[in-house]
Specification:
Helices cover 28% and strands 19% of the residues. The protein has a single domain, classed as Rossmann fold (3-Layer(aba) Sandwich), CATH 3.40.50. It is globular and about 50 Å long. It contains 5 helices and 6 strands; from the N terminus they run E-H-E-E-H-E-H-E-H-E-H. It is of the alpha/beta class and 199 residues long. Bound molecules: pyrazine-2-carboxylic acid and zinc ion (ZN).
Length: 199
């Protein structure tokens, strides 16, 4: 199991943190936890994937053009950069999504690597069967990525201590976690993941 596992960090970008264009309450609270997951996965020589929302300035995803969101994560801007304290290793595989001006692309599985390879293909190429998923936001991109991963036949563990949600409606994050576990995702904290993967 161990060698078939990878870490997938969803959208830990400045615009989703306090002060950003679409701040997730306590969004930056995931950073220290994710850094501990990163260290651990590196120590086990397991691969690390990080997705980023990477929108054009004009997209139907944004309120001004018919969508529901304030502008955020416009590609190449400061708001689209990963949080400065997120310790991504040099060899992390970056997945960009939301580049099409007519799509939301909540799921990282709608994104591609820097070489244009879809996430599902990139995972399959290196034999990954289980992914550990944390980041932002629980009720949008984390949820859709986890559900897509399960549809692709991957085993999924949600890193429950390293996710935060938007909660446009109170309870959205809790409902999202219920939907993910109902679909087959496991839920773990950092101590549990370290114990499971160090075996
Ligand atoms: C996200 C809303 C809009 C996310 C992205 O990363 O969860 N949420 N775009
Ligand atoms: Zn977005």
């Amino acid at each position: 199991m161990k060698t078939n596992s990878a870490l997938l960090i969803i959208d830990v970008q400045n615009d989703f943190c306090p002060g950003g264009g679409l701040p997730v309450p306590e969004g930056d609270a995931v950073v220290p936890l994710l850094n501990r997951y990163i260290e651990f996965f590196r120590s086990q020589a397991l691969p690390i994937f990080a997705s980023r929302d990477w929108h054009p300035a004009t997209t139907t995803h944004f309120r001004d053009y018919g969508g529901i969101w304030p502008a955020h994560c416009v590609r190449e801007t400061e708001g689209a950069r990963f949080h400065p304290e997120l310790g991504l290793p040099y060899d992390a595989i970056i997945i960009s999504k939301g580049k099409d001006p007519s799509r939301d692309d909540y799921s990282a599985f709608q994104g591609v690597t820097e070489n244009g390879v879809p996430l599902s293909v990139a995972l399959k190429e290196i034999g990954i069967r289980r992914i550990y998923v944390g980041g932002l936001a629980t009720d949008y991109c984390v949820k859709e990525s986890v559900l897509d991963a399960l549809r692709h036949g991957l085993s999924v563990t949600l890193l429950e201590d390293a996710v935060r949600g938007v909660d446009l409606n109170p309870g959205d994050s809790e409902r999202a976690i219920n939907a993910m576990t109902a679909a087959g995702a496991a839920c773990m904290t950092v101590d549990q993941v370290e114990a499971e993967l160090a075996r």
